[in-house]
């Protein structure tokens, strides 16, 4: 299977090399924020309470050539927030430039 060539937006506003975490990233405002960040070249990790929705969004964005990952997290749970931070730290090798709450 051939990997899609990224179709990034205006290079004057490049976010290449930037990492971001978007909570609630599978729909609504979080979805739009994730898509815009990735379209400008950012590597984005999304979290949501629903693994199926995460899988669907990651597949959708990967088909556009975006660098995106995701994991389940209920942001009302301290333990899950701590696990999310560990996951994001691992995915981005300790570098997180931006966090966007839903």
UniProtKB/TrEMBL annotation:
Database matches in InterPro entries: NAD(P)-bd_dom_sf, SDR_fam, TR
Keywords: NADP, Oxidoreductase
Highest taxon, organism lineage: Eukaryota
Keyword Oxidoreductase among record annotations: yes
SUPFAM superfamilies hit by this protein: NAD(P)-binding Rossmann-fold domains
GO MF, one annotated term: oxidoreductase activity
Protein family membership: Belongs to the short-chain dehydrogenases/reductases (SDR) family. SDR65C subfamily.
Protein name (database record): Tropinone reductase
Lineage of origin: Eukaryota, Viridiplantae, Streptophyta, Embryophyta, Tracheophyta
